[in-house]
Each structure stands twice: as C-alpha cells, then as structure tokens.
Backbone:
C-alpha cells in the first residue's frame, strides 16, 4: 500500500471523527436537563382525533355510556342524534428522569399531562380551546427487591388500560369494567419470592397503598362541595399480590405503546380495596372491591390483557357502578335522602396482534352489571371496540377505532356507534 493511500485514509478517518464529535456535542447541547443538571427525557404524543358519533352519549368525542332519548322540547326534537368533529385535546406531554445511587437505590420520576381538562360544553367549547390537565406524576425509589412510590397514579387494583389512540383522555371501557381514575397515593412494593434466573424468572410481590379517599359524591346538605370520601377523614386502602414472569424474547422487535408483544412475558394480580364515605353526620358507609387482572403474551405477536372486579360504591375509582354510587331513595323518603349503595360486577378484556413491527391491531369488550335491587338508573353498560394503529416511520402515527355502545335502563336498551380517525406524531 502506498504512502499516499495511507495518508488519504487517515484524512478520511480524521474527518469522520470530527463529524462524530460535532454530532455528540450537538446532542449534549440539545438534551433536556433539570436545574440539578440531571438529564430528563421529554416525550410528546400529538393526536388529531376526527370522530363521528351516532346516538346520544355522555361525551361525543370520547363516549363511555349511552343516554336515554331526549324529551322533545317546545321547539320539537333535535335535528339529529349524530355529530362529527375534530379535536386535539387528547394530545399528551411527558417528562421522565432517573438518578442512580440515591440512598442505595435508583430514583425515577415522571410526569404525564394532557389537554383534556374542562367541561365538554364550557364557555367557548373547551374541546376547541383545551385546557392542560395533570394525569400522573410519580416519584419512585427503587431498591433490588423494594419500591416506594409517591404521587398520582391509577388505582393499585386496576393498573391496566386497553390500547387505544381514540380514548386517551378517558381510557376505553370506562364505565364498563375499567377503573382508571388518577388518584394521589403512597405505595410500597416488596418482592417476597423468586424462582429461576435470567430470562426464565418467576417473581412474587405484594404492594400496599394509601390513597386519597375520593368518592365522586357529595353528602346531602354538603355546604362546601367537599367530597364525601374526604369527609370520612380516613384514607382509602388497597393491596395487591402480583405474580410476574419473563421468558424467551421473540427477536428484537420493539413493543408499541405499552404492549408486551415483544417477548414471552406476563403478569397476574389479585387486589383488594376498602374506603369509607361520610353520608351523614356520624355515619360512614363502606366502599369495597376485590379484583383480578392479567397481562400475558400468548405467543409471538399476540397479547391479551384484562381486568375484573366486584364491589360497591366505586364511582370515585373511575366509572365504577356505571358512574353511580347510590340508587334512587325509597318512596316517601325525606328530601335529600340517599338510596342504597350500588353494587356491581364488571370486567373488560382486549386481545392485540402485531403482524408487523409498524402495525398493531386489537379488539376488546367491557361490561358493567349493576345489582338491580339497588335502584340504580343505569343497569348495564356494554362497550366493544376494534382498533388499528400504524406507525409507518417515526414520528408519524395513524389509527382507526370503531366502538359500539349499549346502555340498559329500566325503560330499555339504547345504543350508539363511534368512529375515530387518528392522525398524529410521537416524539
């Protein structure tokens, strides 16, 4: 090899090293840092949701239940029970950071915000002028077998949500088996046993949580709009036993959203909930539930997830009892009297398939059955949904979801349909 050839190769190598140094420097300058100089990861999911809803529903762009037919007013019936619109209020912004060696543990913090705040029919229509809303905010201290979490998160007994780009502001199957409300809480998790090692490991853990006693209910005569759960002056308590396993990874295909399709993994949990509601001076009514949940990869590219529970007075956890706490009072009861506490049994399940790295589709259903003897207005709510999500190239994301809803009242069953087209990008 000639000397001139060696010199040319050396010059090209030096030029490549210079370009690499410049790229590393640019990346360091563009990284997000906290005031304490720790690096933070910023993420965003900007979604445009174009929807068509047929039938009367509680929320036209993210429906959960069907309303009874409207009573014609003086001007006659409405022109239609269908509507079409476009919103961006289901867009999200996230921030996450982690620090090693904090009291011998790893500290991890994250924040999740969307723009789903405000009432549907507020001044100026809040769907056109969406308001920021805090979803979750968690601070976690993680040791090898112990974890402490403080912040706002879903109920411990119902941590799963269906995959959906059409139901971000309120997760799919809310009011049909999915308890999802984000609540302030303190959690402590302890691993109690483990079998196997490496890629074939089975672990058992227990978690306990103290949560804000939110009931989505005001006691009769409440003068200050304070929640009846908070008036109880007792925290809500939850516990969960978790069995988690890891197994063979099917290649290097990345999972999409929070899907576990990328490997042979799974988790099964059993949970319990208990809290109290102050319904009158000196009177506390108990809220309780027992739950089971599962998130399992059945085979390569196929996962199933779902939850089920039975309990009473669970509206505050996110739509329990089809968003009802108490039934109608008995005939002749004094004004302001609450009816019987509503008991319900509910659950949902979804199966998702990933035939290609960029494509994921799924179908699922949820149902909430209220005890008919409790005098509830809504007796049953059933929701089924099918979705397709396509991420052809970063950062683009497209989706389509079809949803069928049916809500049973004492006067009959009423249905609605919802189609949602999603266009957006993810950073």
Residues:
């Amino acid at each position: 090899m000639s000397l001139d050839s060696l010199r040319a190769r050396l010059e090209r190598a030096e030029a490549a090293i210079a370009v690499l140094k410049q790229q590393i420097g640019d990346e360091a300058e563009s990284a997000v840092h906290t005031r304490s100089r720790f690096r933070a990861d910023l993420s965003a999911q900007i979604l445009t949701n174009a929807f068509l809803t047929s039938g009367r529903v509680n929320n036209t762009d993210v429906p959960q239940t069907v309303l009874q037919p409207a009573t014609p007013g003086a001007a006659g019936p409405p022109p239609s029970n269908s509507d079409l619109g476009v919103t961006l209020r289901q867009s999200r912004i996230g921030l996450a950071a982690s620090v090693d060696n904090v009291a011998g543990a790893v500290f991890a913090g994250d924040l999740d915000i969307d723009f789903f705040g405000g009432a549907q029919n507020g001044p100026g229509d809040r769907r056109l002028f969406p308001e920021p809303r805090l979803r979750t905010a968690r601070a976690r201290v993680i040791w090898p077998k112990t974890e402490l979490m403080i912040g706002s998160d879903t109920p411990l007994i119902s941590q799963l949500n269906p995959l959906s780009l059409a139901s971000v502001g309120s997760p799919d199957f809310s009011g049909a088996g999915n308890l999802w409300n984000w609540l302030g809480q303190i959690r402590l998790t302890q691993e109690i046993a483990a079998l196997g090692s490496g890629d074939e490991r089975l672990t058992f853990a227990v978690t306990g949580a103290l949560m804000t006693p939110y009931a989505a209910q005001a006691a009769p005569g409440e003068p200050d709009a304070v929640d009846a759960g908070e008036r109880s002056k007792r925290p809500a308590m939850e516990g969960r036993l978790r069995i988690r396993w890891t197994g063979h990874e099917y290649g290097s295909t990345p999972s999409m959203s929070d899907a576990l399709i990328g490997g042979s993994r799974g988790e099964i949990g059993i949970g319990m909930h208990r809290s109290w509601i102050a319904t009158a001076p000196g009177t506390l009514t108990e809220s309780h539930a027992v739950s089971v949940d599962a998130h399992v990869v059945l085979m390569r590219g196929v996962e199933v997830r779902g939850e089920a529970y039975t309990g009473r007075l669970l509206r505050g956890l996110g739509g329990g009892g089809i968003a009802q706490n108490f039934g109608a009072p008995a005939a002749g009861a004094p004004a302001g009297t609450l009816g019987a506490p509503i008991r319900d049994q509910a659950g949902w399940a979804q199966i998702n398939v990933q035939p290609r790295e960029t494509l994921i589709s799924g179908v699922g259903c949820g149902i909430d059955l209220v005890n008919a003897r409790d005098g509830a207005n809504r007796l049953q709510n059933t929701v089924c949904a099918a979705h397709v999500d396509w991420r052809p190239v970063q950062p683009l994301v497209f989706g389509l979801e079809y949803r069928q809803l049916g809500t049973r009242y004492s006067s009959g069953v009423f249905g609605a349909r919802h189609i949602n087209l999603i266009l957006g990008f993810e950073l």
